[in-house]
Amino acid sequence: MTLTRATDGKPVLLFSSGLQIRIGNLAAAGFLGLLALALTAMALQIGATHTGLFDLLAGLSGGALDPDQAFALLGVRLPRIVIGFMAGWMVAMAGAMLQSLARNPLADPGLFGLSQGSMVVIMLLLVFVPEAPRGLIPVAALAGGLAVALALIWLAGGARSSGLAILLMGIAVDTVLSSVTSILILYTPKETSYSLSDWLAGSLFQASPTAILAIGPWFVLSLVIAFLTGRALKSYDMGDELAQALGEPVARSRPLILLAAVLLSSAAVTAVGPLIFLGVMAPHLAGFVSPARGRARLILSGLAGGVLVVGADCLTRALAGDIALPLGLSLTILGVPLFVITLRLRALRVR
């Protein structure tokens, strides 16, 4: 491993395998990681039970926690933090992948209709088969997302379809599925309608140690996906024609990348419901902190997404008190101003 400079003059770490890691990207990842830890410490303090990080560390090191503290920390607060971070990570990473695939800065799982496909199938399952085992919900989410992805590829012209064509078809499919969602909410019984509305707003109320075990493998899979697809996405950032000229098998890799985005967005939807606009915000915020491509962009986007969700949950519990403020709403309150500020600063920087 040697410290050298890239063709643009930026310092990089060069490994014997040929892998290059920009120092700026490493610093940005460290900053976002420290921010996530700081927000975790803050989130552990927020709640009716007076306990927090130091009690958790004492308990993990062999100290005694009373039942109320143990339940608050290990049964409620820590699961919310872990699941929120993992869900935000996966949605943001899926958004970054789709933006590179479509070469559109507004692309995300919601715009492609992937999240909506997962939501519709889950809602159909909950409405028409309410006695179905809860273990079928992840399967339903995956089936809905996969169905939309396959429909997009077929409608846009098969494996050789362009990213723009898939995006435009995704907008159309998402519009249709949104209508189906509205019909289900309007014409189901009130109790079911309220439950569906709460879930559609996004929440961490069902976070638990069991839920962590359910979403954990998908989070690990996202790391594998970032490693495997990073190089291809760097080529897609330069356009389909140049990607093909560089040897990227576009006809084979594009459906696989779309499938990977489906897996990540479906897992997140199952865990916390839809996180609207996060797939757009997080990659742009990460790019403002440190411009990156390929694997580095995916990792930084995932970190930014996790930080935004944990921060939004802190905002929800600190300001709303006993009011059940949906996570999606607090995420919008926190993330959109940051998104607007970064876009404005980027515009000033260009001048």
From TrEMBL:
InterPro entries: ABC_BtuC-like, ABC_transptr_permease_BtuC. SUPFAM superfamilies: ABC transporter involved in vitamin B12 uptake, BtuC. Its main location: membrane. Keywords: Cell membrane, Membrane, Transmembrane, Transmembrane helix, Transport. The chain crosses the membrane at residues 26-48, 81-98, 110-129, 135-157, 164-187, 207-228, 256-278, 323-345. It is found in: Cell membrane. GO terms for molecular function: transmembrane transporter activity. It is a multi-pass membrane protein. PANTHER family: FE(3+) DICITRATE TRANSPORT SYSTEM PERMEASE PROTEIN FECD-RELATED, FERRIC ENTEROBACTIN TRANSPORT SYSTEM PERMEASE PROTEIN. This is Iron complex transport system permease protein.
